[in-house]
């Protein structure tokens, strides 16, 4: 099985096609930035982009990815320079940090689809990403700030 | 004809022991009989369309429903401009091409996952309102014949009979629903009276 991750094609052997993409990324490709949270697409920690769209990798059979490009947090930018990565640092969004990869990937999908999101857009795009530390106000501000940066 | 029929009924009811004279030859079935048959068939159709497997994706408003108690979908999931989710949180973020083997995982379908058009809400519709809605192409977005094909052939509709673990399947067999829908349509798609009117 071939899997295109962050612009690099990986040849994977003996993969059960029903394996969730998350475990292929973490255990076989070796990219551990993407986190396991709930395993049932309820928390958003495992969010990656498949074909440019935010997907819950814990509930996505790898066979369904086919030739679509997968983007993980490691591939969002080569050097942490994505507007969201910068505003996340600038505003100190993370507390424990466990959910933040998923948060940033959902936020990046939001800004791709809606470059200048309203509060309602942010609520609609981000409500599937749970943060036990309750960093939601800073997440919202970081998204708005990144949108402004992106519009410059 | 209806007045005569009602009169006969009234006489029969008023005099339970008095049987009317048998007619020399059986008359053709009056339209009321076909209509009654159609209304009975529509009861079956209505019961299925109000089942959570149908209702949950035919909500009133922009929030899908979920589970067997048709509660609002978690995570502030919204209809979006194409009925398949907000542009940044599509239904397909979680709902894949097949059911997964365990309860509490998002169900899936090869035909994709989406809501019915807002105008075609089943939630909160009385039998009368739903019948009128099904007959109005502006709301149903299809003819009655196409509606029959929808319940007979649509893959996402078919999921209602194979919803995966942890969800109640539609209890009326699909073929029975299609037959009832056909019966209702062939009877002229009679519209039930509202309960208030019926009293």
Summarize the structure.
With 152 residues, chain A is of the alpha+beta class. Chain A is built from five helices and five strands; from the N terminus they run ββαβββαααα.
Describe the structure.
The complex is a heterodimer of chains A (152) and B (199). Chain A is α+β, with helices and mostly antiparallel strands. Chain A has 2 domains: 74 residues, Ubiquitin-like (UB roll); 69 residues, DNA polymerase, domain 1, CATH 1.10.150. Helices cover 36% and strands 12% of the residues of chain A. In chain A, the strands form 2 sheets. A 3-stranded antiparallel sheet of chain A has the order 4-3-5, covered by helices on one side. A two-stranded antiparallel sheet of chain A has the order 1-2. The longest helix of chain A has 16 residues. Chain A is globular, with a radius of gyration of 15 Å. Chain A starts with a strand and ends with a helix. In chain B, helix 2 packs antiparallel against helix 8 and helix 6 packs antiparallel against helix 8. The radius of gyration of chain B is 21 Å and the shape is elongated. Chain B is 40% helix and 4% strand. The interface between A and B is medium-sized, with 25 and 22 residues.
Mean pLDDT of chain A: 96
Low-confidence stretches of chain B: 1-18
Instruction: Sketch the major β-sheet of chain A.
Output: 3 strands, antiparallel
How many separate domains make up the residues of chain A?
Answer: 2
Low-confidence parts of chain A lasting 5 or more residues at pLDDT below 50?
none
SS summary, helix count of chain B = 9
Oligomer: heterodimer
Question: What is the 3D form of chain A?
Answer: globular
What's the arrangement of strands in the largest beta sheet of chain B? Answer: 1-2
* Average pLDDT score of chain B: 87
Could you give the count of β-strands of chain A?
5
How much of the polypeptide of chain A forms β-strand, as a percent range? 5-15%
Strand order across the biggest sheet of chain A? Answer: 4-3-5
* Share of helical residues of chain A: 25-40%
- In CATH terms, the superfamily of the largest domain in chain A is Beta-grasp domain
Q: How helix-rich are the residues of chain B, as a percent range?
A: 40-55%
């Amino acid at each position: 099985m071939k899997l295109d991750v962050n612009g690099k094609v990986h040849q994977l052997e003996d993969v059960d096609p029903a394996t969730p993409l998350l475990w292929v990324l973490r255990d076989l490709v070796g990219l551990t930035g993407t986190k396991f949270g709930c395993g049932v697409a309820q928390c958003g920690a495992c969010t990656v982009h498949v074909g440019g769209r935010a997907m819950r990798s814990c509930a996505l059979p790898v066979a369904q990815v086919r030739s679509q490009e997968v983007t993980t947090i490691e591939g969002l930018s080569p050097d942490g320079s994505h507007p969201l990565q910068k505003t996340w640092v600038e505003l100190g969004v993370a507390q424990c940090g466990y959910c933040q990869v998923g948060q940033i990937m959902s936020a990046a999908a939001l800004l791709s689809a809606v470059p200048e999101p309203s509060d309602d857009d942010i609520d609609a795009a981000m409500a599937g990403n749970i943060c036990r530390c309750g960093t939601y106000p800073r997440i919202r501000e970081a998204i708005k700030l990144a949108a402004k940066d992106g519009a410059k | 004809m209806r007045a005569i029929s009602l009169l006969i009924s009234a006489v029969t009811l008023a005099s339970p022991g008095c049987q009317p004279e048998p007619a020399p030859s059986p008359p053709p079935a009056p339209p009321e009989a076909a209509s009654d048959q159609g209304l009975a068939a529509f009861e079956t159709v209505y019961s299925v369309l109000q089942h959570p497997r149908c209702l949950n994706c035919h909500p009133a408003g922009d929030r899908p429903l979920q589970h067997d108690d048709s509660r609002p979908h978690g995570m502030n999931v919204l209809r979006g401009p194409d009925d398949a989710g907000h542009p940044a949180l599509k239904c397909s973020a979680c709902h894949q091409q097949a059911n997964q083997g365990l309860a509490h995982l998002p169900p899936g379908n090869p035909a994709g996952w989406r809501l019915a058009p807002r105008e075609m809400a089943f939630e909160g519709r009385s039998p009368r309102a739903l019948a009128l809605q099904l007959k109005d192409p502006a709301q149903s977005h299809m003819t009655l014949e196409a509606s029959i094909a929808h319940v007979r052939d649509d893959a996402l509709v078919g999921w209602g009979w194979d919803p995966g673990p942890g969800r109640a399947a539609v209890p009326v067999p699909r073929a029975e629903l299609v037959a009832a829908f056909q019966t209702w349509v062939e009877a002229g798609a009679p519209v039930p009276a509202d309960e208030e009117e019926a009293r």
